[in-house]
Amino acid sequence: MNKNKMTAMLALISSLSMVVACGAESDPAAQTSSGQEASQETGSSAAEAPSPDLNGVPEVVATVNGEDIGKDEFTRVYENQFQQATLQAQMSGQEPDQDALKKSAVESMVGTELLIQEAQQQEIEATEAQIGDALAAAAESNQVSEDEFLAALEEQGTDRDEVTAQLKQQVEVETVVEKEIGTFSATGEELQAAYDEAKAQHEQMPAESSEASEMPSYEEVKPQLKQQVVQEKEGTATQELVEELHADSDVEVKI
């Protein structure tokens, strides 16, 4: 399988698992109503929704230590991120900034490629058990069975062998990240601060929206708050690792 295609698959499947934790869902109360609101907004403004602009995208969008990231791979990742950004933009009333989104997409792919290469350099090899666990976790995070998850990806043109190979690479990347940055936890103070921030955001929502989605109690959303805080710490540390790898690598972005 083409290695750059694997890079695109890694970013695509990772984005499927991360979408719930990103963007508009920072308010725990919004989890009870934002899906319905987004669906209504999508239906009412589908005809006005912008489309991804890929004009001028070169055949090779970036080169990382001699490995090319191609336009086809970039297109898959960009269209996925554009769809998510469009849904969020419909709720805010603003169209996504496609230039900024393209930059974000290609930087994400470069970061993924750097981590893939680091895992290879350290000769990290995922086991079948780890791959199976990764498949189960990916399906669970999307609230579907493993068969439903695989079927959804197959409809997008990704068969089971490709998914297995992708998950193998994902495990290896996660292993090198954990090895380099360690693991994180959330303190009670951090959880309370995250809840207070979410509560303040909820109170700033329009009256009709805040009334429709009552703010849950701290105890009700404590597991989600813990996940959010830990993910933020992991994200910051991972970005720092990527920047270190970037500084020691030959990277050329062409978009």
Structural account:
By secondary structure, the chain is mainly alpha-helical. The protein has a domain at 52-123 and 226-254. The chain contains 10 helices and 3 strands. It has helices at residues 3-18, 34-45, 71-92, 98-121, 128-141, 146-155, 160-181, 188-203, 207-212, 218-247, and strands at 60-64, 67-70, 251-253. A 3-stranded antiparallel β-sheet has the order 2-1-3. α1 (3-18) packs parallel to α3, α1 crosses α7 (160-181) and α4 (98-121) packs across α10. The longest helix has 30 residues, at 218-247. The two termini are 25 Å apart. The model is unreliable at 1-6, 15-26 and 31-47 (pLDDT under 50).
Write the layout of secondary structure elements.
Blueprint: H1 3-18, H2 34-45, E1 60-64, E2 67-70, H3 71-92, H4 98-121, H5 128-141, H6 146-155, H7 160-181, H8 188-203, H9 207-212, H10 218-247, E3 251-253
Antiparallel strand pairs: 1-2, 1-3
